[in-house]
Design goal:
The complex is a heterodimer.
Chain A: H1 3-23, H2 57-71, H3 83-86, H4 133-142, H5 151-159, H6 162-172, H7 179-190, H8 199-204, H9 213-223, E1 242-243, H10 252-255, H11 257-269, H12 284-287, E2 296-297, H13 319-327, H14 350-361
Chain B: H1 3-19, H2 23-31, E1 40-41, E2 47-55, E3 62-66, H3 72-75, E4 80-85, E5 87-88, E6 91-92, E7 95-99, E8 104-105, E9 114-120, E10 123-125, E11 128-132, E12 135-141, E13 147-155, E14 158-167, E15 174-178, E16 185-190, E17 197-203, E18 208-210, E19 216-223, E20 225-233, E21 237-245, E22 250-256
The chains are: A mainly alpha, B mainly beta.
Amino acid sequence: MNRRGVLLRRFFSIGVTGLLTLCGGVLVDARPLNSELSDVDPLFAPLQDRQAPPVDARNVEQIELGKMLFFDTRLSGDASISCASCHDPEQGWSFADELSRGYPGTANWRNSPTIVNAVFLRRFFWTGHAPTLEAQAKAAGMGAIEMHGTPGLVELRLAAIPEYRERFARAFGGEIPKSDDVWRAIAAFERTLTQTDTPFDRFLRGDRTALDESQVRGFSLFKGKAGCARCHHGPLLTDEQFHNTGVPASTRWRTDTLARISFNFMQAELGEAKAGLSDDAGLFLFSKRREDLGKFRTAPLRYTKYTAPYMHNGSLADLRQVVEFYNGGGDVNPFNDNKDVKMSRLNLSDSEIADLVDFLESLSGDEVRVTKPRLPSYPARPVDD
Amino acid sequence: MSRRARQQLLRVIAGGFLVGLSGGLLLVRSQAGVPEGVYQAVELADAGSIVGEVLRPSGEGETEEFPVNKDFAACGKEPRHIEWVRVKDGRLLDAVVFIDRIGSGKPFSAAEDTVALRQTHCSFEPQLQIVRDGGNLELRNLDPVMHSARIYEVIQSARRQILNAVQDRDADPISTVIGATRGNAVKIECGVHDFMYAWIFVARNPYYAVVDDRGVFHIDNVPAGTYRLRAWHGRLGYRETKVVISAREQSHVEFIY
């Protein structure tokens, strides 16, 4: 696809997403923050596992197949990297470096977010540019600095393996594996990766002992003095809107040649090669509106205990650094003129900072672990087509 | 300057600091921006030692199987069985035991200044080694296929990238400085073969020992005193205990994983 095509497609996804947002406005209560929040808080709700249990045998097959594909490196161009390489169950289903690893020979340009609870999001990526999990998986599978896969080649690799042929047939019907079904299966698997039983959920469901005293104080600060809930609310603790909070520029553009190349590459891909932007301009790259410079999606705060470092460029190492960042009214980035007016100094004391960190840790629950699937090898000799 | 000459010079400089350490030199070092608390080598009169074992009472190892999907000539066709945790007769192998904070004592040996890591038969060799904080790693690819070493400092649940470099067959060795900002763990992975890995333990002082094939360790020449003794295993993390060292005596310690 030529550049205009790419851009059109991206604009298109944003359009669709916008529409979805309009229709789906029931999920997140966006009423302004009331300083006198009562005990039963309309801004917060436990995360309900709306995920219906697998509906039929076919769905079970899709999930199982999706799990295998999620871990299978043969989806990538040189068969070296799988979804799990950058969304590693042992690294919080994310990648623990500031910037994600990339396709061999490249670096990635953004931090890899967790996919636990991703099913509940209305749009995907730090700049919300994928409207469905299927579209997201496809973008990752084909992206030059992610998996660099080619659909036709992936189909033939999978078709060469009898077990995959059988599994695709059972899950989707048809003679040979189709790449669109690859993304469908992976999305079906991702929909099973949820964590809805955290201390915070138990607290909201009425178990007042689920949070300790420091966490309860942290929750009050979160809603009140610290103002976090102005952007982080709803069951996922995000308004799913975009803000420039003054996250500092990644130091990697200066210290890591491969990261710099990927940064330049993504700007070129998004039509901004000549704009001279010195840092990731966020939503602007997709919307092309100046008021979106430096804006990123309010990050969901669930499962963050396992996903350090934080922010779209991983520039904050741990939750304490995050709270200190907000305590200072955010930091400075090249798009500071556009910084959200809600960002101001909080004057939190040391013990208030500690309480807030303790509260953030109540949002994660136990780690989501799966047994890794056994992946079939290629047969010793080619099978007949 | 050739690499060897440079290394020798480094060694001489390092040796100068360690053995002849004068106050003046120290001053120069800290002025040059070397962080406080740099380890110093001193004469030891009354030293003791530590022996012990690292136990794994459950006997539980951990293995993972990876299919080999390409590069068969170099990597073989058989699936790889990676032994993340090796246990023998209730003893944990591949663990390092070390004194966490000690300001001065016996000198480092030159062996810790530069270590070599080879990529061969689609494995990193050796799989565990020790390098002095700020020491050098020399990476070679002996395989007829491309590898892509990605080296990270592991900081609790986060990582910090040290190197990300592809290396072809017969390419020049890659040399990189290995340092740890927090903790002691460095993990190396191959971006092209997901079953390849190695660990480096970054030593801030020479008081460490890798357990032998019976899970036994021995650390000698320790100045009398009370220390924080830690064990580290790449997969299983840290354990910690206190140890009291008396002159010319041997203290016994057990770690349990």
